[in-house]
Amino acid sequence: MVDSLPSLAFLGAGSMGGAILHGVVASGVPVEGGIVATNRSREKADALASLDGVTSVALEENPAGNTDAAASARILLVGVKPAMVPDLLREIAPSLRDDAIVVSLAAGVTLDTFAAGLGEGVRVIRSMPNTPATVGRAVTGLAAGAAADADDMALVRALFETVGAVIEVPESQIDPLSTVSGSGPAYVFLLIEELAKAAQGMGFSDADARLMAEQTFIGAAALLEASGEEPAELRRRVTSPKGTTERAVAVMQEAGLDEMFARATAAALARANELATGS
Predict the structure, then answer these.
(1) Is 15 annotated as a binding residue?
(2) Residue 130, annotated ligand binder?
(3) Segments in the chain forming alpha helices (H)
(4) CATH 3.40.50.720 fits 184-276, yes or no
(5) For 213-255, what is each residue's pLDDT tens digit?
(6) Hey, which CATH number is domain 8-173, 3.10.20.30, 3.40.190.10, 3.40.50.10900, 3.40.50.720?
(7) 21 known member of a binding site
């Protein structure tokens, strides 16, 4: 982990921006020059005001908050809704520092859109993190724009490594990555929900069902991480021949679990493509 980070600005510290912001603060890595976070409402700004080292700005009270942040921060993370990105880029473009690195958190917004709004020479990196950043266990994909060099990429990588693992990919792989790691936490939560419901259907209390389902997933993930083994190998070890687990897994495979995940990720990718075209 890096010793320190340069000044940061989160322009739109909503769900994803807020997750990264909380993760960076929780990491304890010093941010030289501090952190500025902007949100439209005072209510949203107040939710971040107690974070150590963060200046939280309500744009309804300070309309110049984004441009002020752009003028001071070395790394700007753009976390507004995708439809709002072009207007924000035009707003901040005249205020950017010469050494500024602009990082996109916006799903479906291309590097070309950033270049059109900021100018071809501005260093832009497109990112796709996920919400476990809040607890320091994110997976983040990074794709560099034409003006971003290796040093820029290394600095932004170091930022995201304070909240988890990082994968560098070409931009063409950012949207596919989002269907796995970006949306993936929702898939896991859904599986936990359904396993808990199955336990409830067998007579367990809501609390016990939730405990069993949640801790089974948490424990299995911890075992996978600690063992260094392939998931398929650990599954084989749990699945005794002609045993109960083997029969249960067979039901899932017969139901087309592999096809279901392929269809789900394809649907997510189609939606990402729609977002990129503004639909």
Answers:
(1) yes
(2) no
(3) 15-27, 42-46, 65-72, 85-92, 111-118, 150-161, 174-177, 184-201, 206-227, 231-238, 244-254, 257-276
(4) no
(5) 999 999 999 999 999 999 999 999 999 999 999 999 999 999 9
(6) 3.40.50.720
(7) no
